[in-house]
């Protein structure tokens, strides 16, 4: 009987640099890239490294083989049931929503199934590209679970309350074109072009947009979800004054007047 061994942790997420864009590929294709602790550690560690690297301006995440991420590894969930030790599923460090806090553009290229936790991870990304036959499903209600890790907060803001309830209550499979209509994804691309199109979008952000401005915009959108309109205006005024005094604003105006591409600095490590 042959024994199979798990791939080294470094192989669980493949990395590829394309200019200022880092491509991360979830790499458990024999399990449709199902999520486990080792994959999570590696993915989040690579996000930390990308955040600290001023040469990385944007990240694209996709899946190896025929799936994006099929959700939590079922063997791991069965092990949890047998042990009864569910405490590790909450209060995690880093938190499961760590990708949502990533300070640079994070683009998902959904090449197949994104189910359960796999869907949540896709929703943590800023922009989602998908193929017409990509299959998105919450899947939680069909295994006796609820909307996990902030998805009950995210989904209504993306698609509206009733659509979010449909997605979470039914756990039905939503194909790419319907996902686009609902607002779950932002672009539909032919499978053979998916990764290149997602990277091209990320490259445009990497070469033409201020990294500092993009980080502030991401923080701003998260923070203003809980503000009144008046508070959001006040917050925006404060941030605008900071931006007006920043080096990227001066470079943005100078490059426009000179008719050349901007030379924005990379983000300092924070």
UniProtKB/TrEMBL annotation:
This is Enoyl-CoA hydratase. It is an enzyme of class 4 (lyase). Pfam families: ECH_1. The keyword Lyase applies. GO terms for molecular function: enoyl-CoA hydratase activity. Coiled coil: none annotated. Belongs to the enoyl-CoA hydratase/isomerase family. It comes from the Bacteria. The lineage of its organism: Bacteria, Bacillati, Actinomycetota, Actinomycetes, Propionibacteriales. Keywords: Lyase. Transmembrane segments: none annotated. The keyword Signal does not apply. It comes from Nocardioides immobilis. InterPro entries: ClpP/crotonase-like_dom_sf, Enoyl-CoA_hydra/iso, Enoyl-CoA_hydra_C. Its EC number is 4.2.1.17.
